Structure formats: C-alpha cells, structure tokens
Amino acid sequence: MGSYQLRTYASITELPREHWDAVWPPAAEGWGFYRCQEQAGIEGFEFFYAALYAGEQPALVAPLFAADFNLGLALDERGRARLQKLQRWWPRLLVFRTLFCGAPTSEKGLVAVDDRFRGDPTLFAAFDAALRALARRHRAWMIVFKDFMDADLGVLAPLKSRGWFTGDSVPTAKLDIVFTSTEQYLAMLSAARRKDLRRKLKKNRGGRLQIEVVKDISHCIDDAHRLYLAVRDRGPLQWERLTKAFFLNFAREMPANTVYFLYWLKDESGGRQLVGVNFCLHFADRIIDKFIGMDYTVSRELNLYFVSFVNNVEWCIEHGLKTYMLSQGGDRVKLQLGAQLVPLRTMTRIANPVVNWFANRLA
Question: 52, 131, 164, 213: which could form a disulfide with 4 (CB 3.0–4.6 Å)?
C-alpha cells in the first residue's frame, strides 16, 4: 500500500494522544495505564514507544520496553531451580538484554494496527526492520512480543515469514460472571470445593475482617506496598519490583477505572491493621485483578486469598460486570474456583540471524 515512516517516542506524553486513540482499542490498559507505568520509576526497565505512519496517518502503535530477561522465567519449576543454583556462581547465565513489545505489568501484550493497514505486508516488513534497528540501538540479544492472546497475535502473522517464531507463555485465567448471586456462583463449583469454600468464608463472619473499597491508597501506601512485596518476594523468580509511585499514579491518572480492596484486621481494643490489599482495574463489563498483597502471618488463618476472590466475584455481580480477569500463576486453585485458563503466547526473534535460524527450527 505504500511506504511507512517510523517515529519513536521516549515518553507516551510525546506521542499525540489522538494518534494513540485512533488505533488503540478502548480498554482499561490504554494511554493512562502506560503513563502510570512509565512514570512509576520501575528500576531496570526502559519504556518507549514506536509508531509507523502512512503520511500523517498512524497505521501501527507499539508500546516497547528494554530490560534484562532471565530465561529462568520461561522454565518449569524444576528447570528454574537448577538454573538458580548455577546462577549463584554465574549470575548472568541465561540473562539477556531483551527488547519487549508489550508491558511488564499489563494483562496482555498488544500492538495496535489500524484496520485499513492490517493486510499490507509492507507494513509488517517495516515493523520488522524497525524492531531490529531498535534492538541494535538498545543492544538487545532478542526481541519478544510478550504475553499475547491468540486473537491479538494473529494480527502479527506476517512476521512469521520474516524469521519470527511463536511459543507458549504462562496462561492467565478468567471467570465469566454468568450468575447473579454468590449462591449461584457456589452452585457452579464441585461439591467438595463448595463445602471447603463455605467453611473458609464462615470463619470470617465474626467481623474481625473489615473490607474497604477505595480509589486512592495514599493514606496507607507504606503498609500496602509492604504487603505487595511480601507476595512478590515469595515468588520463585522475581522480575519487576513495583514502586509506591506505581500504585499511587492510578488515583491521579485513572480514578474512574481504579479500585483498591483493603482488608483490615480489627483487634480487641478497636484498632485495626492492614493485612491485605488487592489492586484492580475495571472497564466496561470487566475487571482485571492486577496485584495482591498479603500479610502471611495471618493470611492462612483468615483464608485471605479465598475471601478476596469471593469478594471480587460479589463486586462484579453488584456492578453488573461480565468478566473477572485474573493474573498469571496459581492455575490449580483458580480452576477449582471455576475459572478457565486463557492461553498466552510469545513471538520471538533473536538478533543473531544464525542463532535465530536454529531457534526457529527448534521452536
């Protein structure tokens, strides 16, 4: 259809908002989301943006970031444990500078392409060339489209003929809200899980746990961030470490889409202690469960994860939402709670063409 001009932006504030909105689908994780992420000062991540133009018309917009990537994140539990032992002696083993398309904190990766240009192979040839040039500029060993759903990855199919190969990522999960009450939700579960969940919820009917719904957590950000880190640091292999600014930014940039569920434990003297926090984004008929924080000294006693899950289900029912999107990991429990897994994919190109040729065939 013609030639395309590449423009790169060091900040999303430099990319004209009307150009973003012209191609980006309406979603909670839109312009404001990427601004909140970019301005959070997340250490080790360099955020920027690329757009391809046909004249003055934006044809494609891609959020990008460069970071060191530990390939242990892509291994199973056994392989990850073995790699961690080796990395005690060789910290940079299988850690590569990588150019990513997507976001480290998003529900899914996405490249926005104007419908009028989706069938043009020259657009994707230009995109491929632009990404390889940006990889060289950032000294990236490989380029990865991170956590794309099948429908979104399909748009990028023309890249496969240019040496890109696909792989599986850690799936996410969702719960379709096809019920109108908690009792109807529980009736969907197996008899054993239903009985166990009722027992867990019953333990908290004494009023010890108080749930507060807010849009801003500046009044308790220190405790909330500490609880987030407690969950984050317990993971088998950590990547991004979110800052307090990340959580505070959404109150300023996206108050209409932001919701925090705070879990306070009341004591006998009438005081209370923050023992749980759940950060979610909502848009249209869906809620996205972004990050959770818990005090592990009391979380098991309070069955905090299950209380939080059912609370979010009830919030969806109350607000007429149709989909509850969950985060990655914990698949077994989420399936038991009625969720279904949603596959996520990657598409990769290694900068060295010889290595990429072999990797492509192995993939």
Answer: 52
pLDDT tens-digit series, residues 1-41: 568 999 999 999 999 999 999 999 999 999 999 999 999 99
Is the same domain home to 134 and 213? no
State the CATH number of the domain containing residue 97: 3.40.630.30
Q: Would you place residue 220 in the very low, low, confident or very high pLDDT band (cuts 50, 70, 90)?
A: very high
260 φ, ψ to 5°?
-115, 130
Same domain, 135 and 227: no
Tokens of 104: 């480290």
Cα–Cα distance for residue pair 253/36, rounded to 1 Å: 7
Instruction: Name all contacts of 40-45 with Cβ < 8 Å and 24+ positions apart.
Output: 40/242, 40/243, 40/245, 40/246, 40/249, 41/243, 41/245, 42/104, 42/240, 42/241, 42/242, 42/243, 42/246, 43/241, 43/243, 44/68, 44/240, 45/104, 45/240
The DSSP call for residue 285 is: T
* pTM, 2 dp: 0.92
Residues in the chain, total: 363
Asked if 291 and 350 sit in the same domain, the reply is no
* Nearest-10 crossing angle of helices 244-253, 31-38: 150
DSSP string, 203-246: TTTTS-EEEEEES--GGGHHHHHHHHHHHHTTSSS------HHH
Do the Cβ atoms of 188 and 176 come closer than 8 Å?
A: no
Q: Which helix (H) or strand (E) holds 291?
A: strand 286-294
- Nearest-angstrom CA–CA distance, 185 and 197: 11
Domain membership of residue 45 as a residue range: 5-170+344-362
User: What one-character DSSP code corresponds to residue 29?
Assistant: S
